[in-house]
Amino acid sequence: MSADTNPVPANELNANPPVDGAELIRFEKVTKRFGDNTVLDELDFRVDSGKHVTLIGPSGSGKTTILRLLMTLAKPDAGTITVAGDRLFPAGEKEVREVRKKIGMVFQQFNLFPNMSVLRNVTEAPVTVLGMSKDEAEARARELLDLVGLADKCDERPSRLSGGQQQRVAIARALAMRPQVLLLDEVTSALDPELVAGVLDVLRDIARTTDITMLCVTHEMNFARDISDQVLMFDSGHVIESGPPEKIFSDPEQDRTREFLSAVL
Amino acid sequence: MNWDWSAVGDFMPHFWDGLLVTLQALALGSLIAFALGLVWALLMRTPTRWVRWPVGVVTEFVRNTPLLVQLFFLFYVLPEWNITFSALTTGVVAIGLHYSTYTMQVYRAGIEGVPVGQWEAATALSLPVRRTWTAVILPQAIRRVVPALGNYVIAMLKDTPMLMTITVLEMLGEARLYSQQHFQFTEPLTVIGVAFILISYPASLLLRALERRLVR
C-alpha cells in the first residue's frame, strides 16, 4: 500500500505498511521446550497484516514465549517462523537482523535505559540502527513523546517517571523504529492500578490510528475486547480456540475457555 | 625517643620527591588496572573457549602469585631477555597488571548485575552488539563498580612501597635513604606514615559518599 492511498496517519509511524490482510506472521509446527517442560507443542498459527491479535490463557500456557520467539529473545527447538515472507527461524544471523528490524516490543518491566534521558531512549535506535540524523530522530521522538502525552519529560531520566509514564516512553521508543509488528507483553501487569488506564488509552489510540500489526499478551480482558480483531485462547502450548472477541468473550465453544474467562473476568 | 623537628625539615624536600613518585605510580598503575581489567572481563565473555581459557589461566596465575615476586621477575629476569624498562615503568606495569586481575572481577560483577531486561530491550531495538555494550551495558555496569574500583586504588596506594625493592624512590624509599644517611629513623617514617593516612582516609570517605550516590 503506498502512502497516497492510505489516509490514516499510519504512514508517520510505519515505514512500509504491507498490504492489509496479507499474511504477516506464520508459525509452523513450532516447538519450544524449557528442560522437560514443553511450552509450545508443534504450534501453528498465523497473523494477518494490520490485525490486532490478543493471546489469552492461563499463565505458563506459552503466550509470552510466542512473543519472545518473534523478538528473537529465545529460539525454538523445532519448526519454522516467517515474518512478511522472510524466515526468522531457522535463519542465518544476517537474515535475523533484517527481520528483527520489522518487529518492536514493549515489555512488562518497561526496560528503559536508565543511563539515558527519555529523549535519548527514543532516539538511540533510530540513529544507530536506521542511520537517521540526530536532528530528524529528535524531531520524531518529540512527536512520539507528544503522542504518548510526555512531551514535557524529554530531558528527564526514566527513574524520575512513574511506571505508567515509563511504559508510555517504552511504547514511543518501540514506535520510533517504525515496526510493522508491535509485540505487547503484559504491558500493564507491573503498573499500579491507577496508572493502567493511561497506558491502555495510548495503545487504543495507536491501534485505531495506525495499521501496525499488534500481538498482545494481556490480562486486561476489557482492553482485549476493545482493540482485538482476533483472540487466541492458549492452553498447554496449543491454541484451543480462536475467533473475534465478541464470540470468544460472550459465547466461547470450549469449556476450558469458559473456565478461564470466568476466573479472570 | 627524641623527636627532632629539624630532621623533619631536612627530610621534607626528599618527602615531596617521594610523594610525587608514589602518586605517579598510583595514577598510572590505576589506569592500567582499570583498562586492562575491563579488557580481561570482556575477553572472558567471548563465546570462544580459545580466548577465555588462556585469559583465565594468565589472570588466575597473576592474581595468585605475590606482587613482590612479579616485581622481581619483571625487574631482574626480563633484562636477561634484553627487555629493559626503567624501574618506575616496571613497577607501574607490575602493579597495574597485578591489580587488573582484581578489577576484572569487579567489572564482571558489574556487568552481570545489569538486568537481563536491558539486553532484551537492546535486542528488541536491533542495537548492534558493540553499541549495546558501549551505550547500554557498560555505562550501567561501571557506575555500579566505581566504589569497588576505588577501594582497589586505596589498596594499590598501600602496595606502592613495594616498588622500593626494585630501587624506585617513592615515599618509603626516600625515607629509608634519609634514615640510613642520617641515622634518624623516627621522623621520616612518621612523616610518610602520616602522609599515607592523609591520602587514604579522605579517599575512603570520598568513596563512601560516592557509593551512597551511585549505588541505589
From TrEMBL, chain B:
Domain of life where this protein originates: Bacteria
Protein name: Ectoine/hydroxyectoine ABC transporter permease subunit EhuD
Entries under PANTHER family matching the protein: L-CYSTINE TRANSPORT SYSTEM PERMEASE PROTEIN TCYL, MEMBRANE COMPONENT OF AMINO ACID ABC TRANSPORTER
Pfam families on file: BPD_transp_1
Membrane topology type: Multi-pass membrane protein
Keywords: Amino-acid transport, Cell membrane, Membrane, Transmembrane, Transmembrane helix, Transport
Chain ranges passing through the membrane: 20-43, 83-102, 189-210
Family recorded in the similarity comment: Belongs to the binding-protein-dependent transport system permease family.
Domain ABC transmembrane type-1: 19-207
Major location (coarse): membrane
Compartments reported by the entry: Cell membrane
Annotated organism of origin: Streptomyces siamensis
